[in-house]
Design a protein that fits this description.
The protein is mainly β. The chain is built from 1 helix and 7 strands.
Length: 81
């Protein structure tokens, strides 16, 4: 697995009352995720935060739609620690 930094746009939601002007100023949230790239397809990336190398167990697994990704930086190639 590669260690990566992924910059991506996430949905933004406000559950309280706001003015029309405030709503017009809302934008998606820019998120920076750093972790291990478990797998990737043309549609999605799967990343995790922690790997137990003794049991091949993963912790903090998440899926990021590739269409939301603005940048991927490889921090450590596969095989590097």
């Amino acid at each position: 697995m590669e260690r990566v930094e992924i910059e991506w746009l996430d949905a933004n939601h406000e559950s309280g009352w706001m003015s029309l002007t405030e709503a017009e100023q809302m934008r998606p949230t820019l998120v920076l995720t750093v972790g291990w790239l478990v797998w990737s397809t043309a549609e999605n990336l799967c990343v995790c935060g922690d790997v137990d190398t003794d049991s091949d167990s993963l912790h903090g697994v998440g899926i990021i739609p590739r269409r939301n990704v603005t940048r991927i930086t490889v921090l450590a190639p596969a095989g590097d620690k």
